[in-house]
Write a structure and sequence with these properties.
Keywords: Hydrolase, Lipid metabolism, Membrane, Transmembrane, Transmembrane helix. Belongs to the glycerophosphoryl diester phosphodiesterase family. InterPro entries: GDPD-Related, GP_PDE_dom, PLC-like_Pdiesterase_TIM-brl. By secondary structure, this protein is α/β, with parallel strands linked by helices. Helices cover about 40% and strands about 15% of the residues. It starts with a helix and ends with a helix.
């Protein structure tokens, strides 16, 4: 009987402590400083590459983040190969983007394990004094520890496990941003694919991200100074769902629509 009482009291103490720290993480963790707050994120998905010792953007452009300067996204679009109208079809250099948006936070997610590329991007970030205005995602986050980093997919899976086992409130986190897709976005994509083939991997990803869509998790992370951004949302129903869950910001292909929604709901602050 004494052993059962001991186990019960231990489990009860663990659950209560975990719940307490989940709600008030500042009791254990110092809140991360936010150089900027991402509410409105204008999406121009693409990659960086190295050509002739220069850094260039892919033909799809860049992901840029802006709260009050969403009109500038058009400038980047006009520099890509997929613009409509105009004679300028150049692919922009990353330094061109930095020069055009000196005070605008930018999201750089390097998806290839290329040490040269990662190093050169890091050097450009430092050269243009953008360390405090860059969100950094790559396979070697240790290159420049001064740049805020994203959760990688393995770290997202770890985050998921920690949350559902109650261990998350006890574990320090190095990341400053969590960027995840809304599950409905994956579902819509899968619906198109199912006409031809069942993609099991897509369903697995959807299950993972559905488990992440928890207000308690979002609130805990934001209380620790970790911003939660949901992508890529393009209608008001999804905008509302994400903000109701406690997301810090939304990434969208339609900046004007999101801006008008945020103004209507008074969500700029």
């Amino acid at each position: 009987m004494s052993a059962a009482v001991y186990v019960l009291s231990t489990v009860t103490g663990y659950v209560l402590t975990s719940a307490l720290l989940l709600k008030w993480p500042s009791l254990l963790h110092r809140r991360k400083k936010e150089a900027f707050r991402s509410r409105h994120i204008s999406h121009r998905g693409g990659d960086c590459d190295v050509q002739n010792a220069h850094l260039v953007g892919s033909s799809l452009g860049f992901e840029t983040q802006s709260v009050n300067e969403s009109y500038r996204v058009t400038f980047i679009t006009l520099l890509t190969c997929y613009c409509e109208g105009g004679d300028d079809k150049r692919i922009p250099l990353l330094r061109d983007v930095f020069e055009a948006f000196p005070n605008t936070p930018i999201n750089i997610d390097i998806k290839v394990n290329n040490d040269t590329l990662i190093k050169k991007v890091s050097e450009l970030v430092v050269r243009y004094n953008k360390e405090h205005l860059t969100i950094w995602g790559n396979s070697s986050n240790e290159v420049n520890p001064q740049i805020p980093i994203l959760f990688s997919l393995p770290r997202v899976l770890l985050l998921l496990g920690l949350f559902y086992t109650g261990l998350l409130p006890f574990v320090p986190l190095k990341e400053q941003f969590l960027e995840i897709p809304m599950p409905s976005i994956i579902s819509n994509h899968v619906t198109l694919i199912l006409a031809r083939v069942v993609n099991i991997l897509e369903f697995r990803y959807e299950c993972i991200f559905r488990l992440l869509m928890r207000k308690a998790l979002f609130d805990h992370l934001t209380s620790r100074g970790i911003q939660v951004c949901v992508w890529v949302l393009n209608d008001e129903e999804d905008f509302k769902r994400a903000f109701d869950l406690g997301a810090t910001g939304i990434m969208t292909d339609y900046p004007t629509k999101l801006k008008e929604f945020m103004e209507k709901k008074q969500l700029h602050s």
